[in-house]
Structures are given as C-alpha cells and as structure tokens.
Amino acid sequence: MKVQIPPAAPRRPKIGLALGGGVARGWAHIGVLRQLLKLGIEPDVICGTSVGALVGGCWLAGHLDTLEDWARALTRRRMIGYLDVRLGGGGILGGQRLAKLLSQYLDGKTIEELPKPFAAVCAELATGHEIWLQHGNLAESIRASYALPGVFGPVKNEGRWLIDGALVNPVPISVCRALGARLVIGVTLNADTFGKGMIEEGKNLDALEYDPGALLREAGGPSIRPDRMIMRQLFGSSQETPGITTVMLGALNIVMDRLARSRMAGDPPDVLISPRIGHISLLDFDRAAECITLGEESVRAALTPLREALGVLSP
Q1: Could you confirm whether 69 is annotated as catalytic?
Q2: H or E element at residue 308
Q3: How many CA atoms within 13 Å lie on the side-chain side of 109?
Q4: Integer Cα distance of 41 and 16 in angstroms
Q5: What pLDDT is attached to residue 137?
C-alpha cells in the first residue's frame, strides 16, 4: 500500500521591518506592528531610526502595550511637562525626564537580551558616519537614535557622540538586509507631506498650555524668566514668527523625505507601507490614537503586495 506523504508547508522568508523616523508621526508604527501581527506577519529582524527605534525596541522588549498606553494618554500639557528646558549643553532640551521614563520601563535591558536582532540607527556627530547600535543598553541606544540636533543633546557611546539617525538613514532598509532579512518591509512616515506645513500654525505658548512658572517654581523662583524666553524660541510667539522647533523640524522633514527617496531608489524595500499622516504635525504627540489607526489602515492597504512578496520570496 502506497502511503501518501502530505506536502510540507512552505517556509516563509526571514522578514525584516524597517521603521523610519518622523517624530510624533511615529506613533503610526504602533498600528503598523499591531496589524502585521494580526495578519500573522511577525518580523524576524527590527531596525529603527529615531522614533522607529523607540517603537521597535519597546516591542521586542515586551513593552509595546506600555508605550501605547502612555502615548494615548499624552496631552499637550503632559508633553510639555516632559521637556526639561536647559540653558547650556548640546540641545535646548535636556531630555532627562524622557530618558528616565524610558529607562524605568526598559529596566536596564540590553539589546543582546532581546529575542530577535535589533539595530538602532544613529549618526556620528564628528564624521557623519551611519552607526548601527546592536549591543549595549537598550534605552541609551534608543535615546541616541532620537537625539535631534539642537533639541536633544548628543549621546556618548563608546567614545563617539551620536545624534538622530534620520540624518543618515531615515528608513533603515539596508540595515535589515545586512542583518539577514530576505523580505524587507519599509515604513515611511513622510510619503504624503509634500506641500504641507511641518508644524501646525498657531502652536504657540498658549496653544501648548505651557505653564511658564512651573520650572521657575521647581528652581526656587528666580527673578528672570529664561524658560519663557526659550519656550518662545522653541515654539514661536505668533503665527508670523515660526519658532526654532518649526524651522528645525521642518528642515529635518525635508532631509528625511529627500534622503529616503534617494536611498529607496537605489535599495527599495520589498514592500513599502506609507501611513497617510501628512496632515499630522511633527509635534502632535497628543494624536497617538489617530496615528495608530492610520498605521493599521496602511497595512491593510498594502495587503496585496505583502501577500505577493511572501509568495515570491518564500523558499
């Protein structure tokens, strides 16, 4: 009697997920990850730039739920509370409050302890070299990847000063391939921003609900008001006068968009996911729920190319 052996189920390719930079728009990465997992598409390699490193690292560390809950609870007032303004150093914001919160949640975890390969993309300040952080303290590596020049100070790592990786590799497709991914899914957060304002007009001190006396009370109430001066410079004091943040983040968005287009022209992802979030300001950290929903929708819109890529690249 001839025994029929059922055909072996096809193995899927090793999947890499390249999560791009985009400041507050990065909450869309949470929705992208959620929807991919619902479809049974679990990445084997995660590489992130800036906020992409934050979301990807938190997922691998088992804290995506914590990050999502925190993001959904953010208001403009709460976000301002995390911005520790300082008068000296390599950035206007110290970033210590955010760093402390991140370290608290990640609890000293190292990249080596993560269940899957991970890389946080940074730029070396002295040389402009692209740096991939694949070992060491996870929170510090994420912090280095989102160290936006002029806003957050650079982070020292192994004798090098590191800054935001979006300046060298906004969507780290090449990093996923180098770490062995056969199918690379790229997530860009700047695909539909052409001709749109990078920072919503009118986001001045009053709109941000900033309490100009909060830092002064903490410091014992000095007679000068340096915090108000700095915050006016950051966010602008009127619709006619854009603040430093408006200019810097607008410039960053131009760099990310142009550099991402250039790099993807030479090394495109196998599937590109592009959440339609151009109407969301780079400072709209309080719109996490909307970003997450749009991230989920972008995966559903890319379902056909995802299935086709999985079929073609399966061994």
Answers
A1: no
A2: helix 303-313
A3: 21
A4: 10
A5: 96
Q: Is the pLDDT of residue 23 over 90?
A: no
Which one, of 3, 100, 23, lies nearest residue 286 by Cα? 23
CA 195 to centroid of chain Cα atoms: 22
Helix/strand/coil for 199: coil
102-132 pLDDT, tens digit each: 888 898 899 999 999 999 999 999 999 999 9
Per-residue model confidence (pLDDT) at position 95: 61
The phi, psi pair for 312, rounded to 5°, reads -70, -40
> Once rounded to an integer, what is the mean pLDDT over residues 143-150?
88
| CA atoms of 144 and 164, how far apart (whole Å) | 7
Burial of 113 (0-12, 13-18, 19+ CB in 10 A): exposed
Q: Which residue in 44, 50, 281, 284 is the catalytic one?
A: 50
**Residue holding tokens 């996911």?**
273
89-98 burial, b at 16+ Cβ within 10 Å, e below that, comes to ebbbbbbeeb
Identify whether 257 is a catalytic site residue: no
Task: Quote the distance between the C-alpha of residue 14 and its chain's center.
Answer: 23
Question: For residue range 209-264, what is the model confidence (pLDDT) as tens digits?
Answer: 444 454 444 444 444 445 555 555 555 555 566 666 677 777 878 888 889 999 99
Q: Which residues pair with 49 in a beta bridge?
A: 121
Find tokens 């992802």 and name the residue. Answer: 269
Instruction: Give strand ranges (E) for 142-261.
Output: 150-152, 155-157, 160-164, 183-187
Q: What is the pLDDT of residue 304?
A: 96
- Pairs from 105-108 (Cβ < 8 Å, separation ≥ 24): 105/58, 105/63, 105/66, 105/67, 106/57, 106/58, 106/61, 106/63, 106/138, 106/139, 108/137, 108/139
CA 248 to mean position of chain CA atoms? 16
List, in sequence order, every beta strand (DSSP E) within 134-227. 150-152, 155-157, 160-164, 183-187
> Which position among 44, 164, 270, 284 bears the catalytic label?
164
Collapsing DSSP states into helix, strand and coil, what is residue 244?
helix
